[in-house]
Structures are given as C-alpha cells and as structure tokens.
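Long-time lurker, finally posting.

We've been working with polynucleotide adenylyltransferase (Gossypium barbadense) and I want a structural starting point before designing mutants. I don't trust myself to interpret raw outputs, so I'm hoping someone here can both generate the structure tokens and explain anything notable. Sequence follows.
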Amino acid sequence: MGSPGLGTGNSGQRLGITEPISLGGPTEYDVIKTRELEKYLQNVGLYESQEEAVSREEVLGRLDQIVKNWVKAISRAKGLNEQLVQEANAKIFTFGSYRLGVHGPGADIDTLCVGPRHATREEDFFGELHKMLSEMPEVSELHPVPDAHVPIMKFKFKGVSIDLLYAKLSLWVIPEDLDISQDSILQNTDDQTVRSLNGCRVTDQILRLVPNIQNFRTTLRCMRFWAKRRGVYSNVAGFLGGINWALLVARICQLYPNALPNMLVSRFFRVYTQWRWPNPVMLCAIKEGSLGLQVWDPRKNPKDRYHLMPIITPAYPSMNSSYNVSSSTLRIMTDEFQRGSEICEAMEANKADWDALFEAYAFFEAYKNYLQIDISAENDDDLRNWKGWVESRLRQLTLKIERHTYNMLQCHPHPGDFQDNSRPFHCSYFMGLQRKLGVPVNEGEQFDIRLTVEEFKHSVNTYTLWKPGMEIRVSHVKRRSIPSFVFPGGVRPSRPSKATWDSRRASDAKVSGHAGSDKPGEVKGAADGQVDGKKRKRADDSADTQLKNSKYITAVPSSSAEVQAGSPGGTVSPCSLKGDNVDATGLVEPTRGKDESNMTNGSKTSSTDELSSLNSEVDGSVRCIPPHTGLHVTADASSSKEAEKLAIEQIMSGPYVSHQAFPEEPEELEDDLEFRNRVVSVGNTNNGPLQAPVSDAAGAAPIISSNGAGPSISLHASGSIEELEPAELTAMTSIPVAPVVQKKPLIRLNFTSLGKASEKSG
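Top reply, 14 upvotes:
Generated this for you. Predicted structure of polynucleotide adenylyltransferase:
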C-alpha cells in the first residue's frame, strides 16, 4: 500500500519552468510570523489527533488486504491455475489531501485500487468487490457510482470515509513495488483507468516538484482553510478544488524556494493578483509522451482555448484541472486574491493579523438578490443520488446566465448546500446575483432569465436514474427573506458591532465609487447588489483599459476587439456593448489602488541577489525572454517590489496564451441549443404543455420562458420567496403566437427600482 517514498525537500535543483523570483531566505520576522501561522492553524483544528492518524493507517491496511483477497477470489473463479491465483495481487494507493499530508480530522481518504488485466471494472470491481464490502459489518454507507466520469465507490470503513477508484492495468500480476509514476503504466489502458491513475500520478509529481515539502504542506493547509472561509473552495461550483489549490501553492514554492510559509502566503496573493489569466500555471513543461494521449494545448485543441483559468497537471497526460471555472467565479477569486494581498501588506505594517485574512465571507449579506434552488426526494438514498446529479449541473446555471445576459448579470454560487431540519430529504443551494459593476444603469432595465432557468431545469430533469419524488424548485429571494436555516444555529445574525476588514474595505470602495461617478444612475448601479459593510470591489472596468494598454500578450490579437465585445457567434448585441468589452471572456484583472506590496519587512536584500534570471523554455512564444538572459535589476529600479512585479510579468511569457480564443459556445452548453430551438413540452406541470418558438443561439432576442413549467425570476414588494413562475410567452420573431393566460403576476428582476417591481409587473 502507498506511494513511493519522498524526502522532505528537493533543494539543490531548479524546479519549475522558470528560474525562481527570489532565492532569499527567511528573516526573523518570517520565522515569528510562520510560528504564529502554524499555531493558528492548530488552534482552528486543522490537524488530526495521533489516535485518528493511527486509525486511518489501520483502515488502509485492512482495505489493502481486502482487495488482495478479492483479486485472488475472482482469479480462482475465472479458472486460473493455482499458481496464478497465488501470484494474483491488487494494491491500494492513496492520493489527494491524505497523500499530500494536508488532510484534517474526519476528511475523506482518496484511494486507488490497482488490479490486473483480468479483474474488470464492471463485473469484478463494482460487482464482486462491492458485494464483499456490503457484507462486512465494518462497512457502512456504501455508494457505488459506476457511471461517473471517474467511476468511484464511496463508503465508510470503521467510520473513516473512503473514496475508492479502480485502475485495470495490462499486467497479469501487479508487483508489490509497482511504480505508477512511470508513463509506461498507461499502456493499453482505457480512458477510465487513465483518469483514475491521474490523481495518484499528479499528487506524487507535485511532491517531487516542490523544494521543501514541509513548507509546502503548511502553506497549502493555510490556503485551503482560507479558500473555505472565503467561499471559493469547490471545484463543482466553478471555483477551485483541492488539487487546484495544491498546484497553485506548489508554483509559488518553486518561485520562492527558500521562503517560509509566512512569505509564501504573502507571495501567493501577490503573484496571483498580478497574474494575467488565461496564462497557464504549470509546474513543469508539458510532455507530449509516446502513447498518443491528448495533452492540454490550446494551439492544437480548440476546446482548450475556452479555459479561463488554466492550472495544468504535471503528470502525463497533462490536462487543465480547473476547466470548471467560469467568468463569474474567476472574477470572484481574483477579487479575493486582491483582498488577501492587501491584508498581507497590512500585516507587514502591523495593521492586520491572521484573523483578518481568515475572516469568513458573509455570503448572505453580500447581495440583495439570490436564487434559491431547492431539491427533495423520497428517502436518503434517493436524495444522495439526486444531490450528486444536481450539484454536477449547477455550474451550467451560472454559465447559462452569463451567456444569456452577456455577462451583465453576474452570479456568485455558494459552494455548499443547506439543510432545513424541518423538512426531511430536502436541501437548498444559493446563488448571489448582481448587475455587472461599472455599467451605466438604464431606468427600468430588467433581466429576464426565465428561459435560462427553464433550460437548467430541463437539463436536470434528464437524469437517467430519476425516481418519483425527485423534485427541483428554483426561486428568487431577497436578502431580507433568506431562510433562517442557512445561518448557524438557525438564527439570523445581527449587524456586526465592530468594524471588520471587509466592512472597512467596502466603505472605502463605496466612498471612492461615489467620488468617481458623474451620474446618479452610475452610482446606483455600482453600489447595487451590495449591503452595508459588504461589497466586492470588482475589476471589470480596469481590465479593459489594462488589456488595451498592455505591452504584453493578450488572449487574442487586437484585431478581434469587436468579436470580444460581442455575443456568441460574433453577433454584437446592444446589451453586450453596455459593459466592458472584455468581460465576456472572463479575463478579469484585479484593480490595484496601489503598487504591489514591498518585500517582507526585514527581508530587503539586494535586488540583484534576490531576483534570478527568468526565461521562457518553449521556443516560438509570442513574447519570449532569451534563454540565460535573465532579469537583472539595476540601481535604477525603484525598489525590489517593482523588480518583483516585473519578474512576475516575465514568468507569464509562454507559447500557449497567444493561441487562446474568446469563448463562443462552451461545449457543455451546445446541447441546450436544441432545447431552445424546438417546441418545448416538459412534464411535471399542472398548466399543461405550452408552445412557442425560441430564438437562436445568438440570443439577440429577450430571454423569456417557453412553457408552462417555465420560471420567471420574480420580486414582490413583500420581499417573500417566490418561485420563478412562467412568463407570458412573447413572439421573438414575426411568427404569430397564441397568447397565454398568465395566472400569477409577471415580475422581472429589476436592479434599478426594486421597490417598483410589483407595480410594473401588472
């Protein structure tokens, strides 16, 4: 069981695709602050007890023995001779947070079972092994998911949560000292095995590519905790998951190989605040390999050009681990990186502490309008299956809203779900909604996303394992009407009595927003979607200016500017021209009111000593730095801070970003076009099927509902929760359409005059 042993560090060799930014070692300040950080992480309960650690090791040992017995049993059942039966072997590997050494109490253990060629996935793994586990008293909550993109078996063994994958190799016998890091292990394997092996191979490669494993682990623990506190830890919701954060932290460790966690955390925010996505983050050069497997390369693969925040895995076949990121979630994360950078600057000046950095994001105070997605089922098993399916589709709702409103309406999905204890077999998800900041507001302008929500519900209801009782309801709810079960203890919190970092930041942003506005409508639009003491300072306006004035690479040639502003298919709509021309691409760059922070107090050594030469390792890049012609800081440099800023810019030089293209139609949304272009008749509605023609993919026509089950996002003066009701069907072309009686008042989401919404609905 396990993975190849690794030491505590890889010092003495250059790691990464560029030279480090700084070789400077820790100062006394860094040592003190790192001790504070480690103590902080211990106090918040991020480390498991020794007893739990021993229990996990025992469970893994037991599981390894179970799969060895399983493979011998199926070998005998398949008629293999006794010698082959005795030689038959299977082996358990770990990956993910457990393998990286950053797991916390009660965390799942990601495991991989590697078996021989005659042990099949369908019949033997999900058949015989599943049967063996189901008969063991130590096993509970056994839940196989054979049809997943990466087939998995979930269960608890003596209370320890296990996620078990399976890889069938082409070997007749699995050696006990098997090294799965070798590319040859992938020969003659199916796609599911390649994906299953990828987790272990990537995890082990990360540990090989960081200069100091202990510093990497402490920094990663910190960043994982921070991401969860700030609501940006969730791959399925369109943010980043565990492997993504590990890769981002590992790259910072490569760039600052001698730094302690305190400095690594600070530089994490500094580097990624300045990072110009979609420049990819890579720990090593991408290998083409000899097995013909497809690797991430936007120069060759058109689908790769749609990725907004590429974070590339280091093991063959290299792929983008963060393809779920949307323009909305990228905007939120870049804003959080900016906030973290500001706090780290303040900490260096003794004006903030770790509490400020880890302050929880008050999601339900941040917006005035939310979507509430309620799901329910008949029993626990059905709800578990239904939840898994709905969660996998929630990202589509964000993408659809972005596409159908040309990014004028921005979504912030909450990464978790909430349980209402008064309602069994039920849970809720929430999304914050706001108008794109910085866009002039036209009086009475509305967002009608009823068809968008209708398409989402239609997509969800195609679940092949659907059972009676599996229901989904999408409602609009205003902030003051958020249900109390989402708050700790079921009690809505009062306004904070003392100023927090976020509240002070929001106040400063509000003051600057009013000072810089010439029209009352612009002020209202900029402040819309916020609450006192809570405002995300977005960067959409500055992104356009920065991209136009930048002397560095942008995602497409400047000749494509008109397409950048347009809607899918190159159609430029009036709506898309109201906001920033580049927002639809997701290339949001954070606004920085001041220069990047200077080096950590007490660590300002000579700039020439700190900054190593940087070079681009791949020939043919649009903007490349000649090999061995590094960044040499002269006396003319204003500070090591400015030199570091330039170094970060140079790191992003490479051959990939010049081949990026602005997204036109993400592949996963293409299937919806058939739905939008046909007569829709969805079941489970009391109103009966309704028919209406729907506009084409360009979306130039208003977004309205297409049938009686169609939801509209509605507001009532009372502020109560209202399900998104069907809209009156409107002809989008000259084709005549029979009028449909509207049973309930139609009220569209209106950010400019919420109080008048009900009056305009009649």
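Before you design anything, note these points.
The chain has a mean pLDDT of 75.
The radius of gyration is 27 Å.
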